[in-house]
Design goal:
With about 230 residues, the chain is α/β, with parallel strands linked by helices. It is built from six helices and eight strands, in the order βαβββαβαβαβααβ.
Amino acid sequence: MAGSLDGQVAIVTGASGALGSNVTKALLAAGATVVGIDRGGKVDTPKDGVRRFAADLTNAADVARVVAEVVTAMGSIDVLVHVMGGFAGGMSVADTDDATWRKMMDINLNAAFYVLRAVVPVMRKAGRGRIIAIASRQAVQPAANVGAYAASKAALLSLVQTIALENKDQNIRANAILPGTMDTPANRAAMPKANFEKWVNPMHVADLVVMLAGDVGGEITGAAIPVYGAEG
């Protein structure tokens, strides 16, 4: 898919994470100019071919500020890949405390809402855009003891599908990817006895992102795409 995104500006939230770094590499290889937004780091500092911006995406004002800065610096936003997210589990719904619930909603849902609310008007003005959000298998297949996480990802999926319906008139396509357990260093450390070969390769998710961001993405919108690996 080299060259498929030549001349396009792509934002990646959570760009420094295990999946985000693979997504940025895939987008760069496809020819995109990549803007990474993470909580830390210097503002607008190029690194590894990526323009870096810092923001707290759980803060609505900070999101509005950083998106405006990206538009000023880059001139456009053609692609948004919302990777940022977090996980908490180990408690039944009855045992889930308020702090855990709020954290999951802030990281997995509210941050996405703030980013989408800021980016969609930019894309509508341009008459084009591609939005890809990383949700989770548990958005559609929840498991016990991860209620806050599963609910936040289910709400994220609903939000993305609503965006797809509201903006198809301006050639804006919005889709969600639903990975199963991904083969990341953090997951290996958390589950050292698991069969890693059955997990999802982050680079395969990144390749799917590039496909959705390109011409093929113009024919797909409102989709919830399962990527479950060999776990099935």
